Amino acid sequence: MLDRFPTTLQSECYLEKDRPLLVGVSGGPDSLCLLDVLRRLDYRLVVAHLDHALRPESAEEALTVKRLAESQGAACVIKRQDVNAFAELHGLSLEEAARNVRYQFLFEQAQLYQAQAVAVGHTADDQVETVLMHILRGAGLSGLKGMAFRSLPNSWSQDIPLVRPLLGTWREEVLAYCQANALKPNLDLSNQDIRFYRNRLRRDLIPYLKDYNPRVREVLWRTARLLNDDFAILEHATSLAWQACLRVRSDGAIAFDLQGLREQPVGLQRHLLRRAINWLRPGLRDIDFDAIEHALEFLVNPPRSRRRDLIAGLSLLIEENQFWLFTWEADLPNQGWPQVLEGDVRRLDVPGVLPLGAGWRLSAEITTDVEGARQLAYTNADPFQAWLDNGELNSSLLVRSRQPGDRFRPLGMGGKSLKLADFLVNVKLPRRARAAWPLVVSQDEIVWVPGFRLAHPVRLRGETEEVIKIKLARE
Amino acid sequence: MLDRFPTTLQSECYLEKDRPLLVGVSGGPDSLCLLDVLRRLDYRLVVAHLDHALRPESAEEALTVKRLAESQGAACVIKRQDVNAFAELHGLSLEEAARNVRYQFLFEQAQLYQAQAVAVGHTADDQVETVLMHILRGAGLSGLKGMAFRSLPNSWSQDIPLVRPLLGTWREEVLAYCQANALKPNLDLSNQDIRFYRNRLRRDLIPYLKDYNPRVREVLWRTARLLNDDFAILEHATSLAWQACLRVRSDGAIAFDLQGLREQPVGLQRHLLRRAINWLRPGLRDIDFDAIEHALEFLVNPPRSRRRDLIAGLSLLIEENQFWLFTWEADLPNQGWPQVLEGDVRRLDVPGVLPLGAGWRLSAEITTDVEGARQLAYTNADPFQAWLDNGELNSSLLVRSRQPGDRFRPLGMGGKSLKLADFLVNVKLPRRARAAWPLVVSQDEIVWVPGFRLAHPVRLRGETEEVIKIKLARE
Questions:
Q1: Over the stretch A204-234, which tens digit does the pLDDT of each residue have?
Q2: A240 vs B: CB within 8 A
Q3: What residues contact A353, with CB distance under 8 A and at least 6 apart?
Q4: Strand B150-151 versus strand B162-163 pairing type
Q5: Cα(A91)–Cα(A89) distance, rounded to whole angstroms?
Q6: Alpha-carbon gap: B191 to the closest alpha carbon of chain A (Å)
Q7: Which residues are within 8 A (CB) of A380 and not within 5 positions of it... i.e. 6 or more apart?
Q8: B residues 329-358 near A, CB within 8 Å?
Q9: With bands split at pLDDT 50, 70 and 90, how would you rate the model's confidence at B78?
């Protein structure tokens, strides 16, 4: 066994001998074997042990690990944490709680010791059990691929890899090694309890499956290896699609280009959605299959509201050309829209300048060069400026947000009046932008909806004698 | 059940009502249900039935199918083939033989009837069994993904799709449908025999797995659906890599760019190799895992011979910048090299032209403009032409392939002589090209290795009075 380890450690785990390596040692056969192999191959080790405080004898076992490490001249850190209490506090299963507490501890210590990696004792049998568990519980490729010799990034760190040097070694090899080298593992009773489901797989299911294929363990191990490499290709393809489709990423909200997302193959759409959910809810494990299918259905066939709730306090929204995924607690970014305070009414002097916030300024000036203004108005391409017939204004110009019952007579509709709400829908102003969109009014008549349309009554005509030019611009 | 079918037929199977559709009908519950549903939805059907001739009553059953089709006004084709004999002849299992014979028949008939697709009665349970079988036997993504509602291309056709409208329908739904609609399926006894392994999965393994997850069937079905879409992404990535890496594709041989192949992630290397093997050996099912791993090992770490045998009469060869995969019966393409017959010696007249075959022509001319020739020789960039000092030639010019013991004094090495074999290795002439590479000799001295180097003794010098220009060119 020692023969093939140097290769595994170098070409699969990418470990270097001259940098510290943190080894998680439970005291069971796997971790004792791992520790012994690494020590014989002269790695610089820091031993870390978490006492889960699940059994009375656990403190004594921790001490055994400490003595062992010291006898080998390795640094050793022990921590005792009440995993039962942690599980209750966070509403987790005991297995999940133990896992979270343990890995958090290992990576904290790795950081502290500037370790090149955290090494743990998962064996080939653990791999097979993990794969089977995912097969039975239902998982995509990300579960079926099982574990890797080296994972980076992983759930606990972006820069410290998690390595599993024993991933290609069967449990019986580990036990034989322990015996041959007089290693005395703990009985690891807590493990037996908290890994109930896994132990059933190991003791009942796998032997049963050998009836169907005597080499089923090897076959599942190999499958995991293949799928790991396939998953890497998918991750890469997902990253490319992510770059191509992502439009906004802010605190609690992600927007994809709607068309771009729709044009992706459905497999990539799923992976993009998963990645987005992971980004918004990093703690979430096992993203629900149905949630993703609902999101896909919403993408292809959105309801009239163009909005739906998903899982884990997340919602979907389609707004113009963007597909939003956001947390309920997040304010969707307003994307730099000009907005005014709702209920606030302010006077726009002519000439004058009125700051609206977020760098937006509304300005007005007057001119008697009607012919020049008419030329400019006809050739204008910027919907954020407009020319009004001053003679048609009944009173001074005011700026406010919309009010219930607002109507508007858009230029180009022969003076017909319609509900402002309908007009704003027609011109596709995003729903969220509507409530605080600035409107220029004169008495109760809306004379200009910046960004969209002048009102019919104040258009320039043959009789016009004086023109007001207004402009909304951002610094 | 009839409610959801129109959607499945359109959006999953992409079927049209006004084009013929060939339905494979065994007479069992699945295919009778499928036939009935399609008929009620007004598809234009051609019923096809293969009598496997495995049981005495099979002819009678074929007749039942024929009567049923005729009573529905559908065209019907029946064929009887001795599957047992076919299995023995081709050394196949009965299940595999039945499958081959049946699908070949269905697709032949589909071609004949210009059918838009071949429809078969696989159910959601068949899907789950297929996935489980691949899990147990060991398969990559291409197996784990199971079957698809629509497959094109498939193993039997490049242009006629295979569709499985019942793939989302459970067997109990099918049976309930048959009962409700008074359909009378065959007992399908042959099926029970030839699908022994599958039936074990159905009757023993799946019920057993329900102890671990009561919804294991649904979970496996869903997994297949996810993996199908993931597989499509991988296929696309593979196609891009294929285009980027493929250099030669000829009868029985494929060459990838060596560097390009090495730079691909290992997952894609696997898929490229699988695709190449499939291309060279289209009949081959279940490409061996170890074969691919050996090919990967060879790619990274080729032996000194730079050659190894693989499986199924295929070999690997690394030659300069190319990674070859080829069948033993194939001649590797010589890539248009100039070659002469081994053992043949021919005279090159000066002036004169000597055709070498494959469009190559060796030509020689004489000039006394030594200064001009010197200029040309110094600035020459084409290794397929050279200028020789005629005064240094002992006898007339001959063209031949290499002989045992050949030595060569390359220009630029101060007249040092080395083995021609070593020289050819040094200049990286592909091994296969060496034996018949044309050499220009004068008595026993090699004066020019076309494409590579002039000999030191015949170089142009101050004293040169007469120059021979030789050139090797392709029409």
A1: 999 999 999 999 999 999 999 999 999 999 9
A2: no
A3: A361, A362, A363, A364
A4: antiparallel
A5: 6
A6: 20
A7: A386, A387
A8: none
A9: very high
Phi, psi of A448 (to 5 degrees): -155, 130
- Which residue in this structure is represented by tokens 């190991």? A202
What whole-number distance in Å separates Cα of residue B132 and Cα of residue B134? Answer: 5
Contact check, Cβ <8 Å, A201/B219: no
Q: Could you tell me where the DSSP H helices lie in B165-265? A: 171-180, 189-194, 196-200, 206-209, 216-245, 258-263
Burial category of A241 from C-beta neighbours within 10 Å (exposed 0-12, middle 13-18, buried 19 and up) = buried
Asked, as a colleague might, if the bond just before B153 is cis with ω within 30 of 0, I would say: yes
Residues of B in contact with A225 (CB under 8 A): none
Look at B223 and A268 and tell me if their CB atoms are within 8 Å. Answer: no
Q: What is the largest CA-CA distance in chain A?
A: 107
3 state DSSP class of A72: coil
Q: A349 burial class (0-12, 13-18, 19+ CB within 10 angstroms)?
A: exposed
A286 contacts in chain B (CB < 8 Å): none
Across the strands, what pairs with A453?
A: A449
Three-state secondary-structure class, residue A324? strand
Does A206 contact chain B (CB < 8 Å)? no
Beta strands A162-163; A118-119: pairing state: parallel
User: Of B227, B119, B229, which is closest to residue B164 (Cα–Cα)?
Assistant: B119
pLDDT digits (tens, 9 = 90+) for B222-259: 999 999 999 999 999 999 999 999 988 888 889 999 99
Contact of A137 with chain B, judged by CB distance below 8 Å, is answered with: yes
| pTM, full prediction | 0.75
**What is the per-residue pLDDT for B190?**
57
**Residue of A223, A263, A289 for testing the chain B interface, max B β-carbons within 10 Å:** A223
B94 interfacial to chain A (CB closer than 8 Å): no
Residue of B nearest to A143 (CA): B223
Average pLDDT over residues B248-277: 91
Predicted pLDDT of residue B321:
85
- Quickly list H helices, A72-123: 83-90, 94-112
Q: Is B304 helix (H, G, I), strand (E, B) or coil?
A: coil
Confirm or reject contact between A222 and chain B (CB < 8 A): yes
**What is the distance between the terminal CA atoms of chain A, rounded to a whole angstrom?**
69
Tens-digit pLDDT profile for residues A369-426: 888 888 888 888 788 899 999 988 878 999 999 999 999 999 988 889 999 999 988 8
Of A139, A208, A237, the CB nearest to B237: A237
Residue A334's pLDDT band (boundaries 50, 70, 90)? low
What are the pLDDT digits (tens) for A128-175? 999 999 999 887 898 899 999 999 888 889 899 999 999 999 999 999
For chains A and B, CB pairs below 8 A equal 106
B90 touches A: beta carbon within 8 Å: no
Torsion of CA B285, A232, A242, A325, to 10 degrees: 90
Angstrom CA distances, B151 to A124, A196, B198, B279, stand at 35, 41, 22, 18
Q: Supply B381's token pair.
A: 């960039």
What's the number of CA atoms in the CB half-sphere (13 Å) around residue A397? 29
